Records
---
Amino acid sequence: MSRVWERTRGVSPVIGVVILVGIVAILAATIGVFALGFSEQQPTQAPQVAIVADYSERTTGNGEYLNLSFSSGETVYKDTLSVVMADVKRSDGSDVTLDADPIQTQASTRITSGTRITIHQDHFTGAESEHLDLSDATLRLVWNPADEPESETYVIYRWPDPSQRN
């Protein structure tokens, strides 16, 4: 009986080690696929910027205007930013459209802290003879990374803040 007992004891540890090595290899391969596969698919992070809006309701020669001041945050290139405005009107109530992107016409190549953009009547088609009315207007500052065509666009600033809208 001792011979049978010795053979059985010798086979069990070998089978256990083979199974354990197989499980470890499968787990390592699975973790490697997830770790390496998902790191390439992560979307580009939008830049973090702090912008202060100064809206003037007073009627100047150009009507109402909006100043956007970049107060802090990451450096952004103007080629990656665009202004989208909606519900902009003339003082008689008719719609006007944004003709020239104020960021492209006013900002330097690199937008950093201290950059200031003014949005006024001259940026809109159809507002030449009337004062500009921004009281119901909305603005979105959209970031689109130019060097990565497959990446998504992000709205990095909204005016007015949707939570403070009447």
---
Amino acid sequence: MEDDTMNEIERLLALTEKAVSPFHTAEAVKETLEEKGFAPLCWKEEWNLQKGGKYYIIHHGTTIFAFTIGEDFEGESIRMAAAHGDFPGFRLKPSPEMKAEAYLKLNTEPYGGVNLASWMDRPLSIAGRVAVKSEDVFHPDLYLVDFEKPVLTIPNIAIHLDRDMNKGRELNRQTQMLPLAGMAGQETTDGYMKKLLADKLHVMPEDILEYELNIYNADTGTCVGFDGEFVSAPRLDDLTSVQAIIDGITKGVRREGLNVSVVFDHEEIGSRTKQGAGSTLLMLVLERIYEGLSIQRTKLLQGLSEGMLLSVDVAHGLHPNYQEKADPTNHPVLNGGFCIKESSSQSYATDCEAVGIVQSICDREGIPYQKFANRSDGTGGGTLGAIASAMIPVKTVDIGVPLLAMHSSRELMGRKDMEALSAFSAAFFTMDQRG
């Protein structure tokens, strides 16, 4: 993530270049927080916190919390915003090398709801985390790795060999979506992936214990449209929200409040993991903050009654070629402002009081917003909002920028919507109780 001399879109495109795995998302956020004066915390150490302080902590490598404490904070006012740093794609399986005649392929599995066809014929790379032997068996050495250049591709079949391909076809995830890595030779048998990782990390192949590596689209993001009004890039879901909530938390400290931004992992696979929004993690962090300020836990429980959580994730924009897929009256368009997402099923956290607060802030600050709802005869995705608010019972609302091609390897958004979401996040974290 870059400094404030860059505009929102320049910073967003820079973030999409850095955040190529959930581990790298957390690292990019960490860099920005440290540039803004946030101090690191360690989970296994005491937190001796100071009012007026700014802090961050990383949990299991992929979830990162940032929080600011007001000079006059006594436990009453808590504002939180959550996004996610993972994205749909593919993960490498153990022992991934597969030989097909003269070719080397890698064995992968899908992660999240992947638009398979959108990954065909793309320049792809590999990034993630590697565990290496150390003297302490309970604490292996952990390294981030990024191949930083296209090393894979998933080639399509020629239309000459599948004349009916444009009539629609189902792609097999195990046989037809395996990336091509090179030509197979004697040196590319079992263990070749570990040899490549060992070379990058300057360790011995036999010392590599395991890895968490994902395939990512190595395309560069760019603005498109006659007036550059759209942004086309990989990983806009959910890096748009990551940037917005970090923009907001770094704008200032409310004198009487506690502000918390968190980038969770594993939203794309349901959030119910040790570093996902469906864990007790958020509540544990809040408890440690109050303990570190010597404020009684009762104050925390009282403060939650006035607390509020923004679940920040992307929304479906009206697609000009598939207008029949949109709700008749709640169909946001790109560049019309960020979306407030509502659903009676609570797949989006819907609370009229929280929605009213968001609208009031936008009206006061002149920030454009739109409403989104799914068609009643269809289904949409869910977010971490309802999951997190079941763990932390506070007013919750789902918001985010509208996208086209959501969950494709490359997505499309309106540049004005990023500006609106960042402006709202800043207002949410800086406005006092009376506005």
---
Amino acid sequence: MVSTAVIAFLALVTRFSGLTEPDAQGTPVFDEKHYVPQAWDMVRSWENLFIGGIESNPAYGLVVHPPLGKQLLAFGEMAFGYSPLGWRFMVAIFGCLTVLATMELARRLSHSWQVALFAGIMAVCDGVLLVSAKFGMLDIFQVFFVVCAALFLADDHEQVRHRMHAAYLDGQLGSSAFGPRVGYRWWRFAAGVMLGLSLSVKWSGLYYIVFFGLMSVFMDLALRRRYGVRRYVSGTLVRDTVPALASLVLVPALLYLWSWRAWFASETSVYRHSATDGTIESGSLLNILPDPLASWMYYHVSVLEFHSELTSSGGHSHPWDSKPWSWLAATRPILYYSSTDIQCGDTTCRSMIYLFGTPVIWWLTVPVVLWGVWRLIVRRDRRFVIPVVAFAAGFLPWLAAFDRQMYFFYATALVPFTIVLLALALGMLAGKGRVVERLRPVAPVALRSGTVAVICYLALVVAMFAYFAPILYGIVVPDSYYNQLMWLPSWT
């Protein structure tokens, strides 16, 4: 469609503009310094096309994330070398794809290209999705896979509903107390693949496996109940639960294991020989496993200890640390790049890049999520199941670990689902209300007040994106202008 092509073009322009400019004298900036060298390690050790290379990067200590994200960064470095373009090319591509996936999810849930267009405009103009797609880090990869998993589960639910309805029309619902078999569900399998890829980028993908797996089963139960299956609970357990576990748990687990293939194939991987070099204590239960598997599990235990000890109460602190409740209004962004005291005429200027959420989007997070919960529970609007559950999967688990040192980029996966909820709200508002008589002489068609409100909101999103562009792209601006952008003390 034309709207999709327009949004894709805008995503490409916004993500690739100035992609190579922020650097530290040709070297990575911020947390790029961890992942970019690890990806380059993979490039240099990439001998077998299908196995890939390994990351060692001993200068920065233990490698604490699964390999897939660095493998994806490595593709860009293979093509463009160890340069800003090389280590940012793949994230920019995935950033564009995330915009389109968010747009498609909104279209699938609403069956409206206008609602999809609303979501696309907001996704293009959100600062978090933009900046995440301009630095060689891992978050945008995981976000893309999570949004695709949600999209494929929406497709799966729609397909199963059609199959159930066809069985209802054919009179097959009563042939078994458990209800009909609905056939193999390739969309659910595809969702499992996306969840496995998400887990293979960061362990937080596990949250989505749990939430999406339960959501899929309960949506199946609701369908069987809606179509009058006599034993709908037992029918869900018998017909749907085991296949769901296979697609949404077993498939991700196997893909996660597959992502470590280079680690198993190499003799010099981190902790590769822990089972034989005395690193594992003699009394450990890991010793009952085969040596490669014991070493791999020891690696995982070490990473888990690293993450569990990175707590505020344990003395770990960071100037840009933020807690989950602050993510809901984007009150604590992260400074990715800074160059100050730049002389420009009679004044001083600076170039700054923040991971910064467009306020007119992020400040509506709490009300739109609560509205989505209300639509789901009170009005029983099934369109809101997936975005509400997906938002919960990306937010609630972090509350349980609030003492851990956290950063705003953990919230990147929240914004696509906030945008989908906002787009659904705008879709319900458009076309409502009275005709605005004052606009008749200048408008090509009669515009109702709801449509005018939608246009004004989207215009505000675009305007605010342009207003804050200097701290999203690192544009050199006078200190006075920068100070005008810092609306809240917590932003500095």
---
Amino acid sequence: MTGRLPPLSALRAFEAAARHSSFKRAAAELGVTPTAISHHIRLLEADVGKQLFLRQARTVALTADGDNLFRPLTEAFRSMGEAVAAVRRRPARKIATLSATSAFTARLLLPYVSAFRDLNEGWDLRLLASDEPVNLEAREADAAIRYGAESSSELTSLPLLADQYAPVCSPKLDLRRPEDLARASLIHFDWRFASKKRTLPTWRLWVARAGVSSIDPESGIAFNDESAAIQAAVAGQGVGLLSLTLVEAELASGALVQPFGPSLDGRRYDLVFPTHAESTPAVVALHRWLVSSLALNASAALTR
């Protein structure tokens, strides 16, 4: 078990004085007075209960106990110095923090997280998956992906993806015409964090566009989580008016089908960050990655 150590300042003063065989030269190295060095040595000798130096007229010499302490102490300080130097030489990790909704993160970002470091050497990625917007002005994240971002003097928006919404369901429901919705449950997603909700794609807007008067657009199952609404549709629990961007993988695999139209234009997904931060390294790294990843995503959509 390691014993209690004397004060580091006293050990440092002792090591320098022993190495120089001089309190004066030790004081010059450490930027203190010879009196301070002498004081530290006396405290150290009192702490260990041994005389460490033989005081002579113009020099000092180590006693046998002093010599036993000096050698391992010199090696310890050398090792400490090398460790500190190594830490100083090591480049600091750079972290880019991006906020996005839980559904967008899981479905469009997670498949490409490894590509972030391939594109941005020396950078780490931190994803904040939440349907509640973060405060970008307070630097809770470097940037965010927002749906239908509104213009602001404090925030800048760069377009990423346009979106469309359409009825999608499990092929097991065997829906072929809009009128078939009468025998299925409608799946709703609650846009509780979106502003100007009247312009968002909802079943009420779709029913009016499709001209299907026999359907109650308010009936069915409602979710406050977009991913849960998608999973309910995959499980055959009903028909969701869902983002074609977010269900792209399920449409490609056949887990979901789009049995009929029309489609409704959604809003746009934008990369949003504080104004004047466009050229900061974190925002540049995030934008480079998103443009590359979403281009891959779009290419995959063209092949299905």
